[in-house]
Design a protein that fits this description.
CATH topology of the largest domain: Udp-n-acetylmuramoylalanyl-d-glutamate--2,6- Diaminopimelate Ligase, Chain: A, domain 1
Shape: globular
GO molecular function: metal ion binding
Radius of gyration: 25 Å
Number of helices: 11
Family: Belongs to the GTP cyclohydrolase I type 2/NIF3 family.
Organism: Paenactinomyces guangxiensis
Strand content: 25-35%
Largest sheet: 6 strands, mixed
Number of strands: 15
CATH superfamily of the largest domain: NIF3 (NGG1p interacting factor 3)-like
Number of domains: 3
Oligomer: single chain
CATH architecture of the largest domain: 3-Layer(aba) Sandwich
Structural class: alpha/beta
GO cellular component, one term: cytoplasm
Bound molecules: zinc ion
Strand order of the largest sheet: 5-10-12-13-14-11
Pfam family, one: DUF34_NIF3
Length: about 375
């Protein structure tokens, strides 16, 4: 079945909710229209003309990018200038561009989680929290013999997480009643006859951002034509959401050894580093993009070393003076999220459209 842009957008927004983006960030649909049928999706860190050519060559009419293609307000679209020429090419070839920027940085399984995961950090927490996950309580009534199936389906859809425990539910037996009227096709009972069925009231917790997918999974797994369920907002605190991650290495290692690990884990040609390479480090903060201005957050979080891109001279000096080592792997390191975005989209779109990770290296810098 054909997938429309709006459906692709919904998948991306569930993964990287726009509500997580910082104010005035340029995210969402920047070129094109949501109603187009998706012929393929090319996922990239940046949109350059080479990336647009790659999309055209692959027959992918949607580009999903981390960095905005239009960041500063446009003053003109001059097709004799690089930016205008690229926009014109995209319009000519019916290419649509969708951006997930700071929302993808903050998202669960987004840029910062991928960067922390590649370094095998343990007990990872959010470095700069600026929100918390909203939670809902889902209550559904299910006949006893379908209880296990429904519980599994809810767990697989992401409901019922409390800390590191999955499939958390509470179940109370009771009796459900219903009277099928004209035009119904009841799973149990007959039209015009009051039914009493032993049912279980199953309750579980659901993060608001995946509410839709959990309810869809519930409706799929439930045998009834009309499913009785309730959704309540909860006042309890969900997990922190925000930029950067801070975690620990299994063992303390020398800064030099750690830098080698970063280089390998992030597949870098080189990196910039401050501090004494013999000193031991264990607590690591990481923030994708340009995070120099947040170095004190890393220090306050107890980090021995802070990894972020675009660190400038004075920030490096200030951090060093505060006893914090910094490693700058380059801003381009964020491209490591591309594979993850592809995996998420493949899973959500159930392979209905081809998803490609861009092969274009958009890093403007080389080591010489
Ligand atoms: Zn960035």
């Amino acid at each position: 079945m054909a997938v429309r842009g709006a459906e692709l957008i919904q998948c991306i927004d569930t993964y990287a909710p726009p509500s997580l983006a910082i104010e005035n960030d340029r995210i969402g649909l920047q070129i094109g229209e949501p109603n187009t049928i998706v012929t393929g999706v090319l996922v990239t860190l940046d949109v350059t003309e080479a990336v647009v050519d790659e999309a055209i060559q692959k027959g992918a009419n949607w580009i999903v990018a981390h960095h905005a293609v239009i960041y500063q307000p446009l003053k003109s679209i001059r097709t004799d200038q690089p930016a205008g020429r690229m926009i014109a090419k995209m319009l000519r070839h019916g290419i649509n561009v969708y951006i997930a920027h700071t929302n993808l940085d903050a998202a669960d399984d987004g840029v910062n989680d991928v960067l922390a995961e590649k370094l095998q950090l343990k007990e990872t927490k959010v470095l700069i929290p600026y929100g918390e996950e909203k939670l809902k309580k889902l209550v559904v009534f299910v006949p006893e013999d379908h209880h296990d199936k429904l519980l599994q389906a809810l767990g697989e859809a992401g409901a019922g997480w409390i800390g590191n425990y999955s499939h958390c539910t509470f179940n109370t037996p009771g009796v459900g009643t219903f009277l099928p009227t004209e035009g119904t096709n009841p799973f149990i009972g007959k039209q015009g006859q009051l039914e009493k069925v032993k049912e279980i009231r199953l309750e579980t917790v659901v993060p608001e951002r995946i509410e839709r997918q959990v309810i869809d999974a519930m409706l799929n797994a439930h045998p009834y034509e009309e499913v009785a369920y309730d959704v309540y907002p909860l006042e309890i605190k969900g997990k922190d959401l925000g930029f950067g991650r801070v975690g620990r290495l299994e063992q303390p290692v020398s800064l030099g050894e750690f830098a080698r690990h970063v280089k390998q884990a992030y597949q870098l040609e080189g990196l910039r580093i401050t501090g004494d390479l013999q000193q031991k480090v264990q607590s690591v903060a990481v923030l994708g993009g340009s995070g120099g201005r947040y170095f004190m957050d890393a220090k306050r979080a107890g980090a021995d070393v802070y990894i972020t891109g675009d660190i400038d001279y004075h920030v490096a000096q200030d951090a060093l003076a505060h006893g914090l080592h910094v490693i700058d792997p380059g801003h381009h390191v964020e491209h490591l999220v591309v594979e993850r975005v592809c995996q998420v989209l493949m899973q959500k779109l159930e392979k209905a459209v081809p998803i490609y990770a861009s092969r274009v290296n958009t890093n403007p810098f080389r080591f010489f």
